[in-house]
Each structure stands twice: as C-alpha cells, then as structure tokens.
C-alpha cells in the first residue's frame, strides 16, 4: 500500500455542492427516482454504479462522509453507521455465522464486550477473551471455527496497545479477519497500513469531536463494504443502522479540523501525564516511558499526531475517585461524563460506568482498580493552568 499521510488525504478531498458550493449539498431524500425501470432493477442487483435506490442502502451525504473516512484510513471503501455499536455489531454479524468463533481482546469497550459475551451466544457465536498483548495466547486461542480476531488499537479503558502488525501476521496465517476499533487513535494510528482488514470507529468521539451526536463507520475493502450493503445478505442494509444525511454532512465538516484537534489533545495529555507522573500520581499514558507498550506504540504512530488524548490516573479508592471527579467538575476543569474527544476534559470511573458490563472479578484481573479515573483531555488552551488546578484539587482531597 502507498505511503500516505492521513491528514493530507482529508485535506486533498474536493467535494463541491451542486451549485458550486464549497460544501457538498445535503441529500434530503429517503428515496430516488429512476428514468428507466430497467435501471431500478439493475440497482437492486447491485450493478448500477452511481445510482441511488433508497437511503438505508446509501445516500450522497453518507457516501461523502464514507469517502472521507476511507481516505483517512487508507481503505478502499467505507460505510457510515448511526453509532459505533451499529458499526461493530454489523461487522461481526456479517463476518460470523452460527457455530463460528471470535478471538477478542478482553480490554475492549464495555458495549462490545457485552455484545460478544451476552448477545452473540444467542446465535451460537462464541468469543474467547484474551490478553491481546500476549501473542502466544492469541494464537493458541484460534480454532478452525475462528473467523475474527478483534481488538482496539489503544484499549478502553486501560490504554493497552495492540501490536497490529504482529496480530495481522497471526490473522493471515490462520485466515481470520483482523478487525480493529481505532476510536481512541484516529490519525495517530493507521491500522490498515499495519495490516488490519477492517477498521471501525465510533465517530461519536474524536472524529466528530463536539459531543452532539453518535455515529460510526466501517472501513474495509470494496468487496467487504459492498457485502454489508447487499440488498439480500448485507448486515448494514438488513439491520438498518443508517446515519441520517443531515448528520453525515455535519460530521464531515467537523472531520476537517480533526488533525489540529488531535495534535492539541495529544500535546495537552502528554504534558499532564508527564507532570502528574513526576508528582507520584499513578498515571497511565502510552506516551510515558514507563508504559509497557511505549516503545511499540512509538513505532506504530504517525508521530505528528502524538500519543493521543486519553490517560488514566488512580486516586487510590472509589470514594477518592468520586470526590476528585466531583471537585474537578465544580472547579470547571472538565465534566463528569462518559465519552471522549470533546473540547472540554471529560472524566469517569470506568469500573462503575463504561466497563460495568465486565464482572468485578474480571475487572480486578485486568488491573481495573476501583480508584481508576479515565480522562479524555480537552483542547485546553492553557494546560499549565489546568495542571495547577488539578494539583490543587488533589491536595485538598489529600490524594497528593
Ligand atoms: C464509544 C465507543 C464505542 C461505541 O460507540 P457508540 O458511538 O457509542 O455506539 C465503541 N468502541 C469504543 C472504543 C468506544 O469508545
């Protein structure tokens, strides 16, 4: 694959509106007319390129956004969905049928974990959850029934790094599809370049960046994306997680500032992680030299976008974590809220919120401690001031 710069790919797109507008026109239709009945038939059969049939299948606005995201990820094609979970569930149901098997990282988004653990077994699809950094365990868990190897580039919430290149070698050897959720590291990491087959994003987070909508995307080969849209067999066509055109147009406009936002998120998070770590706060950030995957991640990233905007700190206990989050909100350091990628800093205690689907026992085993706070660092203009304010809160609560 060509050596590409994901931000340039976004910058270089040229979509004009039908009246010469600098933004593409928004398609405000659920259905489309045909000049000839034969063309409608061909479109149903999937062989009338450039014709629209019905907006659950595809719409001009969704195709613009999909094209931009495919360009960003360096994939042949992409398909947007109404949420990240819509992208994940459609992909897994397209790739796996009854009796088949998934090998997945155990440190993944709580909703994805719940879907694999509780929902897919209804269809006799079983998942083995593994330590994704243990490549031998990953390979040993693959059976003749395995269809998918699933991971997050940087895992939620523990910020473990998946060695995508090494995983793709294992996936190819056993003929399984490597699916990577790249939600935490858009632009920073280009999983397709590293050998992933399918890349998923929750657009809800960094890519849209304004916490005003949910959205998702599946990036992959032309063949795979077409199979998802197939009128008779396709998961996105038949399950219907379709994004609305107005929203697709809005996300496309926000995508254009992603490169500068990611740089600022990374710059701010690096600064805070280094400073807090130096003060003795238990800090996890993949850009810290003491992070177990620091060296590998450094080689994986497109350096100009840095190590990302996510970090965790350990406040010592759940009570202290809760008190610290409440105080930080009171002092307007950020909001006590799930999600990430907003201009404001967002924090939550993953044990009690986004990972609550994972049983307590398993949370302990993965190192998800009670006092853990997951922080999505905002676009703060003055991060030194933010640092001072956090330290003040910690001192008041005797965490420091
Ligand atoms: C939020 C999130 C999802 C789910 O996306 P939604 O848009 O909320 O459906 C999936 N994976 C990761 C890593 C996430 O952070």
Automatic annotation (TrEMBL):
Select a single GO molecular function from the record's annotations and give it.
carbon-sulfur lyase activity
Q: Which SUPFAM superfamilies match?
A: PLP-dependent transferases
Report keywords, A-Z. Lyase, Pyridoxal phosphate
Which coenzyme or cofactor does it need? pyridoxal 5'-phosphate
For the biological process aspect of GO, one term held by this record is: transsulfuration
What InterPro entries does the database record attribute to this sequence? Cys/Met-Metab_PyrdxlP-dep_enz, PyrdxlP-dep_Trfase, PyrdxlP-dep_Trfase_major, PyrdxlP-dep_Trfase_small
One of the Pfam families matching this protein, by short name: Cys_Met_Meta_PP
State the GO CC annotations. Answer: cytoplasm
Question: Is Phosphoprotein set as a keyword in this record?
Answer: no
Q: Which residues carry this modification: N6-(pyridoxal phosphate)lysine?
A: 205
Q: Which family does it belong to?
A: Belongs to the trans-sulfuration enzymes family.
This one is known as Methionine-gamma-lyase
């Amino acid at each position: 694959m060509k050596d590409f710069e994901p931000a340039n790919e976004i910058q270089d797109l040229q979509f004009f509106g039908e009246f010469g507008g600098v933004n593409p026109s928004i398609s405000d239709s659920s259905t489309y007319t045909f000049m000839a009945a034969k063309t409608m038939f061909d479109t149903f059969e999937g062989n009338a390129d450039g014709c629209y049939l019905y907006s659950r299948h595809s719409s001009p606005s969704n195709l613009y956004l999909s094209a931009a995201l495919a360009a960003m990820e360096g994939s042949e094609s992409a398909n947007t969905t109404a949420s990240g979970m819509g992208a994940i569930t459609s992909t897994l149901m397209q790739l796996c049928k009854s009796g088949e098997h998934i090998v997945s990282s155990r440190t993944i988004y709580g909703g994805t974990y719940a879907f694999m653990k509780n929902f897919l077994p209804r269809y006799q699809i079983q998942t083995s959850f593994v330590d994704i950094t243990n490549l031998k365990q990953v390979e040993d868990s693959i059976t003749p029934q395995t269809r998918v190897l699933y991971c997050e580039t940087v895992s939620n919430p523990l910020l473990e790094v998946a060695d995508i290149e090494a995983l793709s070698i294992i996936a190819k050897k056993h003929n399984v599809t490597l699916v990577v959720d790249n939600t935490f590291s858009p632009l920073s990491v280009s999983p397709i370049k590293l050998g992933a087959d399918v890349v998923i994003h929750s657009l809800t987070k960094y890519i849209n960046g304004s916490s005003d909508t949910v959205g998702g995307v599946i990036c992959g080969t032309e063949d795979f994306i077409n199979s998802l849209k197939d009128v008779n067999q396709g998961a996105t066509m038949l399950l219907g997680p379709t994004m609305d055109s107005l929203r697709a147009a809005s996300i496309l406009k926000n995508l254009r500032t992603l490169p500068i936002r990611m740089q600022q998120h990374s710059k701010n998070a690096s600064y805070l992680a280094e400073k807090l770590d130096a003060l003795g706060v238990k800090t996890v950030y993949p850009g810290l030299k003491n992070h177990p995957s620091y060296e590998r991640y450094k080689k994986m990233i497109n350096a100009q976008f840095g190590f990302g905007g996510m970090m965790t700190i350990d406040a010592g206990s759940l009570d202290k974590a809760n008190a610290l989050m409440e105080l930080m909100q009171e002092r307007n350091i950020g909001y006590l809220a799930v999600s990430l990628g907003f201009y404001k800093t967002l924090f939550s205690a993953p044990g009690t919120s986004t990972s609550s689907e994972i049983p307590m026992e398993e949370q302990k085993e993965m190192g998800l401690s009670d006092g853990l706070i997951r922080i999505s660092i905002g676009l703060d203009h003055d991060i030194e001031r933010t640092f001072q304010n956090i330290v003040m809160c910690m001192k008041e609560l005797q965490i420091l």
